Amino acid sequence: MADMLSTTAAAPAVIRRADYRAPDWLIPDIALDFDLDPALTRVEATLSVTRNGDHDRPLRLDGDGLVPLAVKVDGRTLEEAEWHLEAGALIIPLSGDSHRIETLVELAPQSNSKLMGLYASGGLLCTQCEAEGFRRITFFPDRPDVLSRYSVRMSADKARFPILLANGDPIEQADLPDGRHSALWNDPFPKPCYLFALVAGDLACNADSFVTMSGREVQLGIWVKEADLPRTAHAMKALKDSMAWDERVYGREYDLDVFNIVAVADFNFGAMENKGLNIFNSRYILADPETATDIDYDGVEGVVAHEYFHNWSGNRVTCRDWFQLSLKEGFTVFRDQNFSADMGSHAVKRIEDVRILRAAQFQEDSGPLAHPIRPESYMEISNFYTATIYNKGAEVIRMMALMLGAERFRAGSDLYFDRHDGEAATCEDFVAAMEEGGQIDLGQFRRWYEQAGTPHVRALLSHDPVAQSVELTLEQTVPATPGQPDKQPMAIPLRTALFDPATGQHHGDELLMLTEPKQSFTFTGFAAAPVLSINRGFSAPVIVETNRSQADLAFLSAHDDDPFARYEAMQQLMVNVLIGRIAGQDTDDGAVIDAIRNTLTDPALDPAFVAETIRLPSEAYLGDQMKIVDPDAIHAARDALQTKIGAELMPLWRDIHAKTKANAFSISSAAKGARKLRNAALHYLVASGAQDGPAIAFGQFSEADNMTERQAALGTLANGSSPEREAALDIFYNRYSADALTLDKWFQTQAFALHPDAVEQVQALGQHKDFTLANPNRVRSLYGAFAGNQWAFHHGSGKGYALVADCIIALDKLNPQTAARLVPPLGRWKRFDEGRAALMRAQLQRILAQPGLSKDVTEQASKSLE
Ligand code: ARG
Ligand code: ZN
After folding, report:
1. 717-757, pLDDT tens digit by residue?
2. Is the beta carbon of 272 within 6 A of some atom in ligand 1?
3. pTM above threshold 0.95
4. Atom in ligand 1 nearest the alpha carbon of residue 310
5. CA 141 – ligand 2 centroid, Å
6. What integer is the mean pLDDT of 81-88?
7. Buried b / exposed e across 731-766, counting CB within 10 Å, b at 16+?
8. Which one of 102, 130, 273, 307 is the catalytic residue?
9. How do residues 486-497 score in pLDDT, each as one tens digit?
10. Which regions of 317-418 does DSSP assign to beta strands (E)?
């Protein structure tokens, strides 16, 4: 491998956490002057620089693709010999301890296809600087521990760019000759350059206001294309709810007089928390019943909250270096998860979050790209915006919150914010504040920051009828991961309860701390053997294996008072049946069907919770339970069980489907729950093979007054081969082809379809006139979705692998960040049979052999081959 890399391209440099050094120069102030134009933008920067410590190193200003047209020091233009470029960076030797540096560069935003730095999107000009995009705008020490006060002047053609926005507060506006105008913005809070932003364009504003807890009025603006204004109400509500929530739950108040959000169509990720000027992928702002599903509505609410919460967890307290990324991301995900739970159902939100964790993070943690939530090294930091940093990072915070309890956790977070306000902090700073503020020893717990891999816990319960006691033996192992062959035991908090099967009650919920490789806990007062409920609420991000029988699981699926544990018991019941079938055994599915029937007919249960628990584990999750994944056997077994459940419970499905039809659309939790259950019923009804299934689905598709029911019906039809399938796809396309976000659903539905011809269909869609590699949402809708469709992507011929590799190779030339995100599915070859593994490796090698491959894709593909 090393040989191959060295013959094709120089291996990208490895950046190590251990090499951190404080910055040589500080930049207390920066003034930027943008002469904006999509074809040619001029950027003048004036930096006040001060020497940091006693050293004689030159000033080094990062740059990426920049050419300095002029360099001045203290007003004097330098000769070319007085500076030089080194790996894109501008190096200037300086004699004194503080100087004024001026630079001038030119940019071409309209040809910036990487969508990092200043770029054009749908007639707008906008920026994305995290992690290292600012160096594509101007020469600057592009690292998060250099904090500066920004003053930003923009000038542009007034007709094309009537709105000019930047961070902080608007200071002045002026008309200029030749139809141009200018605006000046000032941000009083020192910030790292990754939080810089500007937007210029023809935008309309949904304007509102919020009065903070100290009585200050903040002007809120959500800026979109005029036609999209009616789709911004949900985002505005989410913003105001978030502002109130952060005051109530964390005591954190917003600090500027304005807070603006802009939606753009072309965006590499979800959104960005630039100070006072959040920039969003439009899919996380725009929502109306006609085009957005309930999942989309929840996505808008969660991401608006996430970016808003960053104002404290990320902006006021930022990261010292990018190895600390989880400091802001893990904590902020934890905060947005709890916010969303408070806005809706705690039980359902927890189930959804765990499902995402297992689908994305557990897979990452068990593969070649596994890394701790605080990594030790990277080649390209963009590759570390991962489910591990975000979602496992949030789980680690959640465990601390659980161990501390609400009050002490709040004391810890108060201490953290107060102590580090205005600073660039580390994960260790956070843990130390929790330790001190919350009065707890987190010594061993810190291993969650150091060790990668999902811990496995084996829980065995044994009953002694004579002593009337039970012994719970817990054993943990942390699997080897790249660079970490040997692991230390972790501190694992496990919420546990023991149920008396006779009464259906338990004897209290206890938090057991598993800290040793093997530990036993004894409980007395059990004449009969109890049933174990463990990792309740998913208290720790671990894989638990138990010796519980199908009868125990069936009992818990009906009686556990912890909704997550109840869901989990049901899932395990299904997993056991399916894994047996996949292995060729004729396992009995009676308990599964009974449990689903009981759940469906329990009037005490929330329909949204019912819908979650009755769905079969995904094909990918079943694959995760196997040493060697057999995609075809998994699909066959799951499909057959689905058909059987559909047929056996047919009257229930029909009844629920009819009963949950609403008269008018509402976005309330109750209405969302009813739709979720209705869609689940439709899904089983069609899966049963009932003659009228496709017609009923087509009926729902045609009559629905909302996208949640319309898309679910389309998805159900897409799995089959009925005439209704093609009819519905055509209708959907004709109705929405002009609306990019909704057309994405048309691509995505087909890429997700459990259809034997899915590979050919995706291949054809890649040639469709509406497909483009220039828009990341479109790429993710087709190839991202397809790579997550286990049965289709892992087609035994390898044609699915070739399709994704072709996309990666083509996209890498335009947008390496988004291309690199498609690599990990190809890296899971160790989990597949030798035939598939060889085909996957061959595609990774083909990718690596491309001349001029980006650092982003090189890192992901080369690590994936190891
Ligand atoms: N900080 C942003 C968020 O989580 C994500 C930025 C991702 N950007 C990137 N280049 N990886 O809200
Ligand atoms: Zn974030």
Report:
1. 999 999 999 999 999 999 999 999 999 999 999 999 999 99
2. yes
3. yes
4. 12
5. 22
6. 98
7. ebeeebeeebbbbbbbbbbbbbbbbeebbebbbebb
8. 307
9. 999 999 999 999
10. 318-319, 377-378
Give the pLDDT confidence score for residue 11 in this predicted structure. Answer: 84
User: Is the C-alpha dihedral spanning 733, 737, 742, 746 positive or negative?
Assistant: positive
Is residue 131 reached through a cis peptide bond, with omega within 30 degrees of 0 on the bond before it?
Answer: yes
Q: In angstroms, what CA-CA distances link 719 with 253, 620, 622, 623, 779?
A: 48, 17, 19, 20, 21
Name the percent of the chain lying above pLDDT 70: 99
CA torsion through residues 512, 518, 524, 529, sign? positive
Q: Could you tell me which of 516, 523, 515, 593 has the C-alpha nearest to residue 554? A: 593
Rounded Cα distance, 814 and 389, in Å: 26
Q: How far apart are CA 25 and CA 40, in angstroms?
A: 30
681 with 660: CB under 8 angstroms? yes
Q: Tokens standing for 657?
A: 């489907």
Q: Who contacts 821 (Cβ-Cβ below 8 Å, separation ≥6)? A: 780, 784
Ligand 1 atom at minimal distance to the Cα of residue 131: 10
Å from CA of 38 to ligand 1 middle = 24
Q: How far apart are CA 334 and CA 311, in angstroms?
A: 15
Residue matched to tokens 């501190």:
491
Q: How far apart are CA 856 and CA 9, in angstroms?
A: 13
DSSP 265-301: S--SSSEE--TTEEEEEGGGT---TTT--HHHHHHHH
Tell me: pLDDT of 340 over 80.
Answer: yes
Ligand 2 centroid from CA 144, angstroms: 15
Task: Provide the angle, in degrees to the nearest 10, between the axes of the packed helices 740-752 and 758-766.
Answer: 150
The length of the chain is: 866
pLDDT band at 1 (very low <50, low <70, confident <90, very high): very low
Ligand 1 near 352 CB (within 6 A): no
Q: In this predicted model, what pLDDT tens digit does every residue of 770-809 receive, in sequence order?
A: 999 999 999 999 999 999 999 999 999 999 999 999 999 9
Residue 379: partners with Cβ closer than 8 Å, 6 or more residues away:
12, 13, 14, 15, 855, 858, 859
Token pair 């001038």 is at which residue?
104
Q: What is the whole-number distance in angstroms between the Cα of residue 422 and the centre of ligand 2?
A: 18
| 380 catalytic per annotation | no
Domains and CATH numbers, the chain: 27-297 (2.60.40.1730), 320-450 (1.10.390.10), 456-563 (2.60.40.1840), 737-866 (1.25.50.10)
For the segment 644-663, what is each residue's pLDDT rounded down to a tens digit? 999 999 999 999 999 999 99
Look at residues 154, 163, 155, 153 and name the one whose alpha carbon lies nearest to residue 123.
163
DSSP 3-state of 688: coil
DSSP 453: S
| Cα 827 from Cα 399, distance rounded (Å) | 30
**Cα distances (angstroms) measured from residue 525 to each of 94, 472, 561:** 77, 14, 21
Is the four-CA dihedral 190, 192, 195, 201 of positive or negative sign? positive
3-state class of 220 per DSSP?
Answer: strand
pLDDT of 423 over the 60 cut: yes
Best mutation site among 64, 307, 310, 385 for ligand 1, i.e. most ligand atoms within 8 A of its Cβ?
385
**CA-based nearest residue to 245, from 304, 184, 309, 296:** 309
d(CA 656, CA 857): 48
Q: Which amino acid is at 198?
A: L
**Residue 46 and residue 100 in contact, taking contact as beta carbons nearer than 8 Å:** yes
Token digits of residue 615: 């769905």
State pLDDT tens for residues 168-224: 999 999 999 999 999 999 999 999 999 999 999 999 999 999 999 999 999 999 999
pLDDT in tens, 461-480: 999 999 999 999 999 999 99
Alpha carbons 755 and 546: distance in angstroms, whole number: 35
User: Can you give 142-173 as a three-state secondary structure string?
Assistant: CCCCCCEEEEEEEEEECCCCCEEEECCEEEEE
Residue 752: closest CA among 818, 840, 683: 683
